[in-house]
Amino acid sequence: MPKKKSELDSTQPKNDAADLSKPVESADSKSKKPTVKKPAAKMPDKPVFKTAAGPSSATVPTAKPTATVAELARPQAAVLPETKTDPAKPRDYKSLAIKIGAALVILLVLIVIVFGVLVYAYKSENQVVKAVSGVIPYPVERVNGQFVSYHSYLFEVDANKRAYQNNAKLNNQPAVDYNSADGKKLVAQIKQHALAKLKSDAVIAQLASQKKVAVNSKDVDKLLDDLYKRYGGKDTLLKTLNQIYGWNLSDLKGVVRKQLLAQKLQDKVSSDPALDKQAKTKAQDVLNKIKGGGDFTELAKQYSQASDASTGGDLGNVSKGQVSDEEQKAIDALQAGQVSDVFKSQYGYEIVKVVDKTGDTAHIQHILIETIDFNTYMDDQINKAKVNTYIKA
User: Fold this and answer.
1) Parallel/antiparallel/unpaired status of strands 146-149 and 139-143
2) Contacts of 186 (CB under 8 A, 6+ apart)
3) How far apart are the C-alpha atoms of 160 and 196, rounded to whole Å?
4) What residues contact residue 145 under an 8 Å CB cut-off, 6+ apart?
């Protein structure tokens, strides 16, 4: 039975008997310093409860809960220090560009070295090396200070190899085996020929530049049109050249340009006034010897530069239309046994003797002094050229 309020009050200590706000004195408090008890830690005003549904509306304590074993074993994400970027500060693009440039330079150097080994150590002729050598001009020789590229060298070698194979096929002969002993000898000859051809091309280009001789696109196109008409049209010609040499239109244009440059140089050299005067003087000296009693046949053998010089310049019986206009004019003005004065033809300076004459037919001899023999002139120029070769054929 619960006690009445009066009874409960009587059991409580009096306020003056125990005041909790005052310190408690021990029995020997008179001899020792009083001990002061610290007040107990203040508990939160409201307890914290957790239910299955989640935390209650009670105040959650700020103390960090103790981690469980499973939580400690779980890998924790690394906490990186916060990086602060200044949006106003621009990125260092210059430094980045320098690094990229340096990397590209290193890569280019490696490419140059690797393909240089393939060119000079292995003399590789595969399509990749051919393509790279078209960009990086590895030299095979130097002619009067001008480098000749490995790409041009491969172009000449490949064209000649194909030509030999095609020629064997057309003549129903066995295919050329370039790996055989005879095939390897033929390849060595082809490579020597390629180096000689490139040297000649370089000298021609240098002389043309010195003498201000040039070929333009119109010159090339005109000759190409003539070739198309002569060989059954553009498609037919290109197909044929591709089968024989492996050339395309661009290759053909390059070959035509070189041929035209050589022809124009020959015309320029042949019309050189100094050389023209020299040839005319020489021809006049020969004529003076003839008039002085010299034998025409022997003088022709000695001085003529025509292909028939060894036969004393004897052309046999000729009719109108078989000789040049200049030669025909001289023949018409002569009688049997007579010799013409020096006259200029498309070949140089000439002297004609009519041995016999019947109607429009005449038996003649002639002596030709060329303004200049271009082949001899070129041979002399090539022999004088300073050449350094960097690859052994």
Assistant:
1) antiparallel
2) 164, 176, 178
3) 13
4) 386
Burial of 365 (0-12, 13-18, 19+ CB in 10 A): buried
372: amino acid identity, one letter? I
Q: With 0.70 as the threshold, say if the pTM is over it.
A: no
305-329 residues labelled b (16+ CB within 10 A) or e (exposed): bbebbeebbbbeebeeeebeebbbe
- Cα–Cα nearest to 150, from 191, 186, 187: 191
Given a contact cutoff of 8 angstroms between Cβ atoms, the answer to whether 144 and 202 are in contact is yes
DSSP annotation of 363: E
| d(C-alpha 327, C-alpha 344), whole Å | 9
Chunked mean pLDDT (size 10), the chain, 393 residues:
44 44 44 49 48 44 48 50 56 87 94 94 93 95 97 97 94 93 96 97 97 95 94 95 96 97 90 84 96 96 93 92 89 95 90 94 94 85 96 83
What's the burial of 352, exposed, middle or buried (CB within 10 Å: 0-12/13-18/19+)? buried
The domains of the chain, with CATH numbers, are 139-270 (1.10.4030.10), 273-371 (3.10.50.40)
Q: In a 3-state reduction of DSSP, which class is residue 116?
A: helix
Q: Specify the DSSP element, H or E, that contains 357.
A: strand 348-358
Closest CA to 357 of 385, 326, 330, 380: 330
- Residue identified by tokens 């299955």 is 52
- Ramachandran class of 389: left when φ > 0, alpha when ψ lies in -120 to 50, beta otherwise: beta
- CA dihedral of residues 134, 138, 142, 148 (deg, nearest 10): -10
